[in-house]
Amino acid sequence: xxFLDEVKTALPSEWYYDPQHxxxxxxxxxxxDWVCVARAEEIPNVGxxxxxxxxxxxxxxxxxxxxxxxxxxxxxxxxxxxxxxxNSGHFANGRIICPYHTWTYDLSGELVATPYRTDxxxxxxxNYSLYHIPADIxxxxxxLNLNKKTGQSLEGFLGEEGNNLSNWxxxxxxxxxxxxxxxxxxxxxxxxxxxxxxxxxRTHPELCKLVPVYNKGLVSRDELSDEEQGIKRGTGDGVETxxxxxxxxxxxxxxxxxxxxxxxxxYASFTASMYLVGHPDYVRSVRIFPTGPETTDLVIDWLLMPxxxxxxxxxxxxMLELGRLVVEQDGAACELNQQGLRSxxxxxxxxxxxxxxxxxxxxxxxxxxxxxx
Length: 373
Description:
- The protein is of the alpha+beta class.
- It is 23% helix and 26% strand.
- The strands form 5 sheets. It has a 5-stranded antiparallel β-sheet with strand order 6-3-4-5-10, with no helix packed on it.
- The relative contact order is 0.17.
């Protein structure tokens, strides 16, 4: 996409803190699209469950008796009680039991028992299965779609972007380290920050040493002038991967091409809930969970091939250091941005030439809101 040819007006400041607008975005975006919530390895055994929230909606994700992933609203069909009060666990004997009146469901969500209920002719258990949520898996990642009427498959939602890391064996890889960051900014600020590198020279000096185009305040080599086109795509000359020193200390992941390894970094982004970046030696994923108008959780996973963590435990900190630092730097910048948006004088900001992807993101947000009014 070319540079913006004129200064653009950014989204209204109140869209980043107004509770009613936040609810509107949840309904128009987060409750309509496929959202990445977990890794399938988090529930390895039949009967295992995890609970995840998308906006203010709580979902139970279960491995059923056929070893398939299922998802349900964390709500009993009787009078709406929350069923799971823990974030993870195991349903003993393949039974999901509501803690209030003991209504009991099997792992497929069917109601199978209602102890102590007085019988009546008009009651049929088959009418009161758990509220189903569409679930699917891509590359070992679990996606949910709270819009039961969606006509779009997960594959269709991911589109061509889903092929970016096709040479990385994501479904075989395992998370060797996970961190959750609770940050004080609106979820949109994460994607705005992600979609430009205008901030990079000041905010990420360590990263800019590894990726030459970032040091110019740009995201892509395609943005360079004709005179600068000789700069290497991806990481710089002599830089192998995203580590503090740019060096690889872990085994190379099988699958990526020589060109992909030479590039040192390949991105795949699935607005609004996830991006991941493949390196020659590891993959890092970041999942985004809006928790309020001015709060967001980031869940970061570092993925390796099975057995690598155990054989190279002394190398993990070297892998983790740069990713941790970049998240901390971006988080601090976004929190400052959130604070400033509360100014009565600042009705909206502006976007300059190289912030074209931010403008594209803003147009996407507006189109989603217009399409769900």
